[in-house]
Amino acid sequence: MDEEVLPWLRCPTCSGALDLRDSRCEAHGEIVAGGLHCGCGAVYPIRDGIADFLGRPRPPTIAQLTNELPATAWAYERLWRPFALTLLSGESFPYERELALVTEWVDAARGGLFVDVACSNGLYARALARAIRYAPGHVIGVDHALPMLREARQRARAARVRVSYLRASAQALPVASGAASGVTIGGSLNEIGDLDACLREVRRILTDDGRFVAMTLLTAQGAVGRAVQFAVSAGGIVFWSREELLQRFRAAGLYPQRDEQHGIVLFTLAFPSPQSERVPPKDGRRGTE
Ligand SMILES: C[S@@+](CC[C@H](N)C(=O)[O-])C[C@H]1O[C@@H](n2cnc3c(N)ncnc32)[C@H](O)[C@@H]1O
Ligand SMILES: [Zn+2]
Question: What would the CATH number be for the domain defined by 58-277?
Fold first, then answer.
């Protein structure tokens, strides 16, 4: 966790500001140990560079529990993630294409605070950190699975990018209201639990001109795809139609501006105010809503 992220952090219980105490820093400025103290009495420990806002509670679904396993965290970006979008979209979809789309849509190059929610090994978080390299700003990665965050931190260090990793719930982000220039969620809404509460949190932390970019899996059309989705739904993974998902975004105050579908993969850009009040994206293309 980086010291410059402190002004943006808030207690997820009472929204109070946090005071860093008993901290220990490494040479390059990362806070590796300490406690974040709130006036309400809550203390959130920082261990091995990761601030923990969750403590004991365990995730409720099988899919979420799977992500708590060190083996899943180890395998995620090694064995699954590089091929995931090509398999799910049915077309060639390497990292370069996906990460360019996400960082451009969220307009990371303008700087500010960017939050990658349910970040796993931090693929989007690292891409955001590279994209804001020349602007003032910072990237936070949030996940509720500690093994995922440990792996994410190692990967960020190896890539020499600065990302602050926080263990927290997507439904109670420890981030100040109106603080984030952008929020990304890559493939995680499908297993996030309470979707509407998560989307309301995203809306809460965005600045008025902030951007939300999500990559989400839609309901499959074919019989085989539907059968697979039915099987994994027992583990707590949920799929929506494009229309239903965008309606849930709107209900949370996130107005879809642009979206692109590849197979069952939907990329969405949403703004926290209706698009009529907004400047269109740089390429001038309007959304389909
Ligand atoms: C599909 S993976 C994320 C992939 C990652 N964003 C990427 O693009 O590589 C889902 C992640 O969401 C996390 N997660 C699921 N529900 C969550 C919640 N309610 N709060 C925080 N993290 C959650 C899991 O621990 C897991 O790491
Ligand atoms: Zn508090």
Answer: 3.40.50.150
Report residues near ion ligand 2: CB below 5 Å.
11, 13-14, 16, 38, 40, 42
Q: Does the Cβ of 201 fall within 6 Å of ligand 1? A: no
Tens-place pLDDT, residues 145-181: 999 999 999 999 999 999 999 999 999 999 999 999 9
Instruction: Check pocket membership of 124 for ligand 1, CB cut-off 6 A.
Output: yes
Check whether 26 has a pLDDT greater than 90: no
Contact 143 CB / ligand 1 (< 6 Å) = yes
- pLDDT, one tens digit per residue, over 77-103 is 888 888 889 989 989 999 999 999 999
Give the CA distances from residue 85 to residues 65, 94, 182, 261, in Å, rounded to whole numbers and listed in that order.
23, 7, 22, 12
Handedness of CA 267, 81, 54, 48 (dihedral sign): negative
Question: Nearest-CA neighbor of 1 among 151, 167, 248?
Answer: 167
For the chain, what are the domain ranges? 58-277
Ligand 1 neighbourhood includes 128 CB (under 6 angstroms) = no
